[in-house]
Amino acid sequence: MNRIQLFFRSYHPIVLSLVFGHGLSRIGSSMSLPFLALYLANTTDMSKTMIGVVVGAGALVGTFGGFIGGALSDRLGRRAIMFTALFLWCLVFIGFAVAKLPLMFMFLNMINGLCRSWFEPVSQALMADLTEPGKRLKVFSMRYMAANFGVSVGPLLGAWLGTGNGSLPFLVTGFIYLLYGAVLYSLLLSFGIKEIEAPKKEKITLAAAWQVVRRDSCLKLFLIGAIVVGIGYCQMTVTLSQYVSDGFEHGVRLFAALMSVNAVTVITLQIPISRWAEKYSPLVGIHVGNVLFAAGLIGFAFSAHWLGLALSMVVFTLGEILNYPAGSVLLDRLAPHGMRGTYFGAQTFGNLGQFIGPWAGGFLLGAYNGAVMFTVMGVVVLCASFFYWAGQREFIERSRARA
């Protein structure tokens, strides 16, 4: 009991509520959004091409919306952006349940992408605001573990509720976001978020924030590294599903099992691996993570049995556990005073890798084979370490010059 009490006393209650809420919201979104294409196919007369455009619209808007939301949170405060996103999200999922026109679905999914790109970076910035530097890696790791728990549970609930054939999962998700917004609003008022935001006297305009980000060569290098990692990371879902379904018996079931291996590995190993990573710099976590990413991808390339695929997924997931929380810590350290939200928002530019990756992976898979595609992607991920190393070196030189 003492350990549990010590744990809860070690972190601000708002931080713990954001971690818990992140997992709960991921349960809601993953019980509906992964099946949006199936829902559209079953309930509308949209073509496959149009469904693809609708589904992809959210990610496209989210890639560029994060910077705007983060910069506005530095100027207007975290609360304004977070609650705008949360309550808009609630309306979006209710809209999915009642919409009929293709353009309405596209509009709703664009707003969905915008809400995610606003809420998630700003919530990370608020968590960093309320956590001492030495504990931030652990906080980001807990947040990441909560997200994976939600993603592992959500699709099962969605299938049980009949996602793809009815609107109930979308309505349930909308209610979850409404509940999350109401509880978080009460907590922020109770624990004095006004006092936390009050000391921020500087009002940086959106244009000025963009100029700072545009001129920050360290940030550019970190973002390029994130894009390169994203190109390799997205192969785990996009091309691995095709590779497994075409090349293995009961491939669809096997791919679903591999996704479960990914989620279970994160849930069970996130905390012990995070404790190990805390002993080293975030850059070490990123480098080791990239090596594990590459090893997992190459393992996919040469696995002839389901057991090899499962072991490769475990190795790949270990890279995921190390890489993404460490990337958040790097951005936190890089952000100038009063611009943490802007920098976490700029992190969404790294999602460009999620657009490049499916195209590049699909091309290599079609033109050659899975072994070539996964091997090439493993090498690509390793190249990301160069950009992170170069950004860290420049950051150190900049810090020495200012000292």
Describe, in plain words, how this protein is organized in 3D.
This protein has 403 residues and is an all-alpha fold. The protein folds into two domains: 12-200, Growth Hormone, Chain: A; 204-403, Up-down Bundle (Growth Hormone, Chain: A), CATH 1.20.1250. It is 84% helix and 0% strand. It has helices spanning 2-10, 13-30, 36-43, 48-76, 78-98, 102-129, 136-161, 168-190, 193-197, 206-215, 217-233, 238-247, 251-277, 282-302, 306-334, 340-346, 352-367, 370-402. Helix 2 (13-30) runs antiparallel to helix 8 (168-190).
Short description:
84% of the residues lie in helices and 0% in strands.
Q: What tags apply to this protein structure?
A:
403 residues, mainly alpha, Growth Hormone, Chain: A
Protein structure class: mainly alpha
How many domains comprise the coordinates?
2
Quote the CATH topology of the largest domain. Answer: Growth Hormone, Chain: A
Q: Regarding CATH, which class of the largest domain?
A: Mainly Alpha
How many beta-strand runs? 0
Using the 3D structure, state the CATH architecture of the largest domain. Answer: Up-down Bundle
Q: What would you report as the Rg, rounded to the nearest angstrom?
A: 21 Å
Secondary structure layout plus pairing:
Elements: H1 2-10, H2 13-30, H3 36-43, H4 48-76, H5 78-98, H6 102-129, H7 136-161, H8 168-190, H9 193-197, H10 206-215, H11 217-233, H12 238-247, H13 251-277, H14 282-302, H15 306-334, H16 340-346, H17 352-367, H18 370-402
